[in-house]
């Protein structure tokens, strides 16, 4: 079957029910997408399908009906997305393992809700666990990213 | 002086390792530096000055041997070297280096010696020196016990200064300018005329010289980096999905493995049926491993799916099958022949209590999982004369020994590549997952095997934080706390953990009542006893180890007594605190939080203070009892680490530690039924989520004369401060974690 990931078209030969997460990581070697729980409890595997955040561990590859964007396609060192820039400015990461998912979730929130309230942020981000406890910095970074995006 | 000083002299406890006494070694042997491991493969024209700095004509590499679990030590180590080396971020590369005894941890001993951190007496200090020497002889290279900064703070700056002075000598030889006229900046030696000789250009000349050993470290007023906000070296890669962790290791030709081991930890595998699994797509091999079975497949998911399709017949657990029986064993342990040690008896507690106990209560803390977000994993390639291991680990040299024992190699033949870790909280002190990967790889010599635990396997085979109970009482008089009596009963986590590594641990375990016995208060009548519960489920060090439980017990009890006395919780703690550095921490948190100010309805504040790993830490928590449950509004934290190396990372680690402590206090435990952990994934043990996260205000104090690490100390005060705040807001005193068994949270 065919998949478009980070702007590139790929042909993959896998089971229909293989989760998108593992297709990305093990078949396409896109390692920015992380495995944390496999049951939609942590958000580490979050990617976008047509701009909307989904848990790739709970998305069978055959159900993917749009373009996939991963953290590696959102931006890169030297050409970061505004959300990634805000994450660097606020030095959010500790171990960093959850942050791909956090950033993808935040980017999706901000494309729907350019000026989120504290409650909007809490609602959108509460599915993303951070075992290191970087939540205060995530909150601040989302707000900074919102300003950056609004000001273009 | 308290009785803590009367210790068993022939027993040395090292926080995480112990050695029976009678070890003889001369001062000379201890003082002799180890050989520099970087000299072994030194290319022509490359210079190394010590085990931490290597320079060739192309680049400068700084070696930071402490493992990075997210605490930012990779950055901090480089910054400490760069401070004296006069080199800027971006001008050097970093590496964890190779396991070597030269990287022995000088500070790990500090928290294992049976002396209070406030005790700077001759016997306490000489014990620390003896312990440090012992660790050195053992070549104990480890990351844990919040010891990386204490270990690194002086020696890495010395390493940088040594390299700098040698490079200046090289520049002097080449230019004819005397060393005294040379300066250094931006990775170069600067001549009086302003021209620069890059360190890389000096490598060839420096390689011919003996490293300069006469060095003087800079005064704090001259520091460029330390104490100033820095951008962590790993922040860019961790914000762009380009940081590679152990789970991302990509070795050519690697196969993917998953394991299922007996969820009754340590129980036998009686038999299994893998017929269905064998037929599944991508499955290459099914092999036996200790206590379970591994599936080797062409990708991770297929390996995990197939492993879960195997039907098993498991043997019983070597510990009680039901949680209630674990508690019964703990409850039965407050008896004379299980007394591990009476750590402290100041004054006369029995006499003080003779007039009546103000409180007489029991507390409990559960097993809790580490559950770092990156599931355990290891990639291993076994060849006839070499084993290569890629994983993130906290004790590299022991890892070499453990792997070598599996494969039949010598430890020196194990080539270990340490990886950035997606969290640990103590889980990556363990070896089981690495040994299992080595078992599989040993049955497939020549093929690299990457083992990834499913989250369920990670939970099932966590070695959780030990459970424990405490019984406490005390007396109050004239509005003051005058006596406190606390007995703690827990299994020895150190014994469990070191036992798995094949080490025996004689003597009392400092961690059974850490956070309680070593409290720096001066309560006139004070008795702290530790009872050792025989091993139940296997346990392991969990961020802040004993203090995560002992701090909850002791501070909760103190809070109850203060309320009984009718005193102010903060003022009475300050009154009882004679230790100057600790008192200032309490005063600071009072000022920050404006303690005593009027609060809205249904709102209350609690304060707690725990010293752990040499860091006095006080937290004030404010909660509101809402219709949806308890909401944590704000937390204020003051901690004294002597010197704050990086204020941004310090704040981040303190906030994270508070959140870790609060999350587990709220809703996390591991319980056993039929010998198996009942919690299989994060739904069952969530920790804190964003919508529950309070604002957290942090202040680092620098009154202490010793420089300490901040990874663990924010954790222990969080649980008691929260329980104390809930009491203040609701009148409900909760004496058992997790708190959600007794009260709802938003
Ligand atoms: S791995 Fe998908 S939500 Fe945790
Ligand atoms: S930074 Fe470690 S899990 Fe979020």
3D architecture notes:
The complex is a heterodimer of chains A (152) and B (746). In chain A, 38% of the residues lie in helices and 12% in strands. Chain A contains 6 helices and 5 strands, in the order E-E-H-E-E-E-H-H-H-H-H. Chain A is of the alpha+beta class. The mean pLDDT of chain A is 97. With 746 residues, chain B is an alpha+beta fold. Helix content of chain B is 29%, strand content 23%. Chain B has 19 helices and 29 strands. Chain B has a 7-stranded mixed beta sheet. In chain B, strands 15-23-22-21-16 form a 5-stranded mixed beta sheet. A 4-stranded mixed beta sheet of chain B has the order 3-4-5-6. The radius of gyration of chain B is 27 Å and the shape is globular. The two termini of chain B are 46 Å apart. The N terminus of chain B is likely disordered. At the A-B interface, helix 1, helix 2, helix 3, helix 4 and helix 5 of A face helix 6 and helix 18 of B. The complex binds FE2/S2 (inorganic) cluster (2 copies).
